[in-house]
Amino acid sequence: MKRLAIAICCLGPFAYSFWVLWLDAQALLPNPLATHWGVSGKADGFASVIEHLIWANFALVLASAMVLVSLLLPRIHAALRRILLALTGYFWFFIFGLMIYVVAVQIGLTNSADVRVGLEVLWFVLPVLLLTPMALSMPKVVISDKLRIQLWGLNVLTLEYGEIASLTSREVRPAQFGGWGLRFAKGKVAFIPSRGPALEITTHAGEVILVRSNQVENLLAALNPKI
């Protein structure tokens, strides 16, 4: 799976460029391409196919590099790696999906000024806009076959009970970690939307995960028998 992800990240920009150049060679794309749209959905920015590929590949290579760093960076906590892969992987899909969409809506057109972008583009934009408020929301600890930390009902981090070495309670302040939200600081992964009590999880691998919760004592009572 790791090798497949590396191959996709490395080959993705080349595959995208080949696809666009093939469409251009088949005279299936207008030249220049529309590259920007106003709030009305009307195209108001244009670039040649080559210019588009230069800027598109800059974004695609950057997105791929972020995933590769998350995959290959040595001495990184497993919990932190999983979170980074989720975030960078999402960003990768967002960038590639958006670039593919921009070109796909222009296939078969002779004049890129005719391209209008409707509400369907929100499928690409809204998830990105939601990342910040989601990261700032109060996390939820779900105790089932595994320990799961969720934000807005989505599993952000999953731990086997056998991975947990100890559990304790501590008071946390966002200033300790540089601000609110999902934070990585001082060798810790922290879910801190506000000041207050937090569940501190230490794994056998030496990871420290802090989860802000108003139910820490109840969580400790439920989790300690499982580890």
Describe the structure.
This protein is α+β, with helices and mostly antiparallel strands and 227 residues long. The chain contains 5 helices and 10 strands. The longest helix is centred in the middle third of the chain and has 27 residues, at 78-104. The protein is elongated, with a radius of gyration of 22 Å. 22% of the residues are buried.
Jot down its keywords:
227 residues, alpha+beta, 5-stranded mixed β-sheet, 3-stranded antiparallel β-sheet, 43% helix, elongated
Q: What structural class do the secondary elements suggest? A: alpha+beta
* Sheet with most strands: 5 strands, mixed
Task: Tell me the fraction of residues in β-strands, as a range.
Answer: 25-35%
Spans of at least 5 consecutive residues whose pLDDT stays below 50 are none
- How many separate helices? 5
Task: Specify the helix fraction band.
Answer: 40-55%
Mean pLDDT: 87
Q: How many β-strand runs? A: 10
Distance between the termini: 29 Å
Order of helices and strands: HEEHHHEEEEEEEEH
- The dominant shape is elongated
Query: Which strands sit side by side, in order, in the main sheet?
Result: 6-9-10-8-7
The Cα radius of gyration reads: 22 Å
Concise overview:
43% of the residues lie in helices and 25% in strands. It is an alpha+beta fold and 227 residues long. It is elongated.
Draw up the topology in text.
Layout: H1 2-25, E1 33-37, E2 43-47, H2 49-72, H3 78-104, H4 122-135, E3 140-143, E4 147-151, E5 154-159, E6 164-172, E7 181-185, E8 188-192, E9 196-203, E10 208-212, H5 216-223
Helix pairs in contact: 1-2, 2-3
